[in-house]
Design goal:
This protein has about 400 residues and is mainly alpha-helical. It has 16 helices and no strands.
Length: about 400
């Protein structure tokens, strides 16, 4: 009997907690730099708006390409090699920021960091999905995703505060230290390899395992891409928008965003396990739209209220999409599902940085955030259409049951 089928199996195991901490540190190394590097490049190298957008987009595109290789390596059982090589590359690139004397070298380090980050960011969630009891997958991935979204919220706040108060060099050194702390945690996880890797799969399941790309991942990937466009605008331009709107502490947006995520995550995961993504996607998108529109009013109170609205929506939607993608595939393809999830996220951030940066140049950062909300409106429309199409095309319950019996 597979122990993962036991509904009473605990979620908060040592492996799960270690994975959450490792993932938190990994994304902190990303987020502390992702928001601060555009402002640093503009001040230190008088970077143009195009060069500023490349800081985010080149990283994202290199991470996307790296994950195509990573997902294949995970399917072949190369987890140990993938994780350690990715961590070493990420550490080397982070150290490289210190010696960057020009925008070209800085962009080269962003590409290198993207390669390393693409490897490691695929490994940790795949390991997590293999230690979470299947019947608690929504709740478990919701809590695990909290480490990602928490880093995406407090990382920019830490980075911006350090850049303003201490300068760029202390920021780099702190990021390097956090990166180093991941190595012993990875060693602990990999020393328990049989327990932390893929769930046991019967021979019949292995024979039936699909090969190649899984088309069921297309819709959630598109929705994740549209959601991430808005976050790309926040990551890349929040510091610059703070100057434009005369906000004294724009980093507080990310703090209140994090608080909202912490509040919503325990509830959204349980709602997903009971009702599925259909109960969360549209309400979450509406909250995010409200948050972006409130942000454009650019008062201290308005920006904090907008952070709460956006955080509630983002905190519910992001893990729902990731869990949805994991549950659509065979256990051996979870590396592919997580790779697609983070690729669509990074692609959305990259496109958001480039497109929204162009809009900001032509109008203003406040107007840019209003335009970014259109991607969430499009998300609601696409999701609604696909639900309608799938509902119309669905077979009667009796037929579905007979098909499932035949498949078994």
């Amino acid at each position: 009997m597979n122990p993962n089928n036991n509904p009473k199996q605990p979620l908060w195991t040592k492996e799960f907690i270690t994975l959450m901490v490792s993932n938190l540190f990994l994304f902190l190394t990303l987020q502390m730099m992702l928001t601060t590097l555009p402002a640093y490049a503009q001040d230190a190298f008088t970077a143009s708006p195009l060069q500023v957008s490349l800081i985010t987009s080149l990283f994202a595109f290199s991470a996307i390409l790296s994950r195509f290789v990573s997902s294949k390596a995970l399917e072949k059982g190369k987890l140990r090699l993938l994780l350690y090589v990715g961590l070493v590359i990420s550490l080397a690139a982070t150290l490289g920021y210190y010696w960057a004397t020009g925008i070209v070298f800085l962009l080269m380090m962003r590409i290198l960091f993207g390669i390393g980050f693409g490897m490691t960011s695929t490994s940790f969630p795949t390991m997590a999905s293999n230690v979470i009891p299947p019947k608690r997958m929504g709740e478990g991935m919701g809590y695990f995703g909290l480490s990602t979204t928490l880093a995406m919220s407090i990382g920019p706040m830490i980075g911006l505060t350090m850049l303003q108060d201490g300068g760029f060099t202390p920021l780099v050194m702190l990021t390097v230290l956090i990166n180093i702390l991941i190595f012993p945690l990875a060693f602990i996880l990999l020393s328990k390899k049989p327990k932390a890797e893929a769930s046991p799969v019967s021979k019949a399941q292995a024979d039936d395992m699909p090969t190649g790309f899984n088309r069921k991942l297309i819709l959630p990937s598109v929705l994740n891409f549209l959601m991430s466009i808005t976050y790309g605008g926040l990551l890349s331009f929040m510091a610059l928008y703070g100057h434009e709107a005369h906000l004294s502490n724009p980093q507080y947006f990310f703090l209140f965003n994090a608080l909202a995520i912490i509040l919503v995550r325990p509830f959204s995961g349980k709602i997903y396990d009971r009702y599925g993504h259909k109960a969360l996607m549209v309400p979450a998108a509406i909250l995010m739209i409200a948050g972006l529109l409130l942000l454009t009013f650019a008062t201290s109170t308005g920006s904090l209220l907008s952070a709460l609205c956006y955080g509630l929506g983002y905190g519910a939607m992001q893990p729902s999409i990731q869990t949805w993608m994991i549950q659509e595939v065979h256990p051996k393809q979870r590396g592919m599902a997580n790779g697609m999830f983070f690729n669509s996220l990074d692609f959305g951030v990259a496109v958001g940085s480039i497109v929204l940066g162009s809009i900001a140049k032509a109008t203003s950062y406040g107007m840019m955030y209003r335009f970014s909300a259109i991607s969430l409106v499009l998300l609601i429309v696409i999701y609604g259409i696909m639900k309608l199409v799938r509902g119309t095309a669905a077979a009667p319950p009796a037929l579905n049951e007979s098909n499932q019996s035949a498949a078994g």
